[in-house]
Amino acid sequence: MSKRYQGGILGVGFNPLQAPNAPTSVAATGGDTSASVSFTAPSNVGGSPIPGYTVGINLGGIGATGSASPITVSGLTNDTAYTFNVWALNTYGPSPAGGPSGSVTPSAARGLFGGSQDTFANRIEYVTIATTGNATTFGQLSSSQDQDTGACSSSTRGVWAAGYSTSAITYVTIATTGNSVFFGNLTLDRRYSAGASNSTRGLFAGGFAESLGSRVNVIDYITIASTGNATDFGDMAFNAMMWSAMASSTRIVYGGADNESLAMYYVTIATTGGTTSFGNLTTNCAYAHNGCSSSTRGVIGGGNGTNYITTMQYVTIATTGNSAFFGNLTVGRWGLSATSSATRGLFAGGRVSGGVPTNVIDYITIATTGNATDFGDLTVAKSWSSACSSAHGGLA
220 near 231, Cβ under 8 Å? Predict the structure, then answer.
């Protein structure tokens, strides 16, 4: 007869002496009605190979199964706290439970937009990415961060760095509302830096340093869950500003700097060092474009050249190569911001024909191609904002 264990049902051959050791380093990241559970496979697999793993939920039942880390648990209830255990399973039975993970609380993915060169310059506002509709006021950035900041985020915390003549870094808790709080400082003051991140580390690349009166190639990094000053990561290929940044959980791709608008480069987030050539943009978007990403694909939209660009183009982040045409924004513009969930990208604000700021928010489905659709409006027309979210491609 079969035997039961907390993670499932075993066959007749149950032998705990031949079962695997427990998975280690069990951790979870919350999403929208879901969580991604990561772990390290046991080095001792027991008497036979491990074909799969089971994730159990502290509130009862089996969350999900999979062949390797990470495993996504779906069907969770937003705004409810969960922890997770992981079992390795071979033909002799389950390992002891690995974990539990730290507590995570799934929530509807939010996109946040902060700063502006226009009215209400310090305002932060937010939207729920999975729906459509107008933005709601969230709070305010530090008074020194009213324009030209870079932004990045984990699933819980949004971070804005630098801006005009400042090196300050501030943060907010995405699931709440309120003003940003001091985090630390970049290694150098600068504006127009490109922010991107995975779930733990945020990078800020390039920019224009007022103290030096020049563009810079500096890349800094922070640990998002902590506070403190940034650390030098490495250097961009050349001094430049206004890069678009697109992240997976392992890599950031930078494209289209203001003074070499076709070049793309990448870094590996978990390491430090300089950029490596990725390919070229196939459409010259000049500068003041912006990018967002799923875990596999990055999309750049808008930009400023001889006209106000509507074009969007995409890359596959894990590979290298040139971009391909994706579709068009609803209106051509530059100085726009961009963020995403794991599936949907948003492009917000910017300046339209005649240099007038707009409040338009567009959305796309990142896995497909095609023209953008109207999402709603920002609370005010604005340009040169920066955006982050609780569920972008770097968190998958």
Answer: yes
